């Protein structure tokens, strides 16, 4: 007994995506509630990231475990079993190499711009301190 496999149509793909969005919204809501339990200040600051994190959790869990999404399962869509892992690995490797090369070019300019900001505005000399908001304070008193 053989099963007939046809390409998924637009309607199935849209229904699958809508079902996936329902589950992503449930995860986002749970993350938002957890964040609110931790602190209102953190909720105001990071709540916008909950949707992105929920999408990453939902889709990457299925992809990394070679599973269907719940929307695909609901509509009966399966992914082609073409082995593209070598091609994907090569693509990721090339993309990472390009990104690293870009960082090698951009980082000196970012450092230079940051140093210019320090000399013009004062404040933070190290980029990490600027990103974290740490302010330098002078402590006067006994010397060691």
From TrEMBL:
UniProt pathway annotation: Protein modification; protein ubiquitination
Cellular localization per UniProt: Peroxisome membrane
Cellular component, GO annotation: peroxisomal membrane
Span of domain Pex N-terminal: 20-111
Keyword Repeat annotated: no
Catalytic reactions on record: S-ubiquitinyl-[E2 ubiquitin-conjugating enzyme]-L-cysteine + [acceptor protein]-L-lysine = [E2 ubiquitin-conjugating enzyme]-L-cysteine + N(6)-ubiquitinyl-[acceptor protein]-L-lysine
Pfam families xref list: Pex2_Pex12
Main location, first listed in the record: membrane
Gene Ontology biological-process entries: protein import into peroxisome matrix
Record's bilayer topology term: Multi-pass membrane protein
Protein name: RING-type E3 ubiquitin transferase
Organism (species): Anopheles atroparvus
């Amino acid at each position: 007994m053989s099963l007939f496999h046809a390409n998924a149509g637009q309607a199935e793909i849209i229904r699958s995506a809508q079902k996936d969005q329902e589950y992503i919204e449930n995860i986002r809501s749970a993350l938002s509630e957890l964040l609110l339990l931790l602190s209102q200040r953190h909720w105001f600051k990071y709540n916008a990231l909950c949707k992105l994190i929920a999408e990453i959790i939902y889709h990457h869990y299925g992809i990394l475990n070679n599973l269907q999404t719940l929307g695909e399962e609901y509509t009966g869509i399966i992914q082609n079993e073409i082995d593209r892992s070598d091609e994907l690995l090569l693509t990721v490797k090339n993309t990472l190499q390009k990104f690293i090369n870009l960082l090698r070019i951009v980082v000196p300019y970012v450092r230079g711009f940051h140093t210019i900001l320090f000399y013009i505005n004062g404040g933070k000399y190290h980029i990490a301190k600027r990103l974290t908001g740490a302010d330098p304070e002078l402590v006067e008193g006994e010397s060691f």
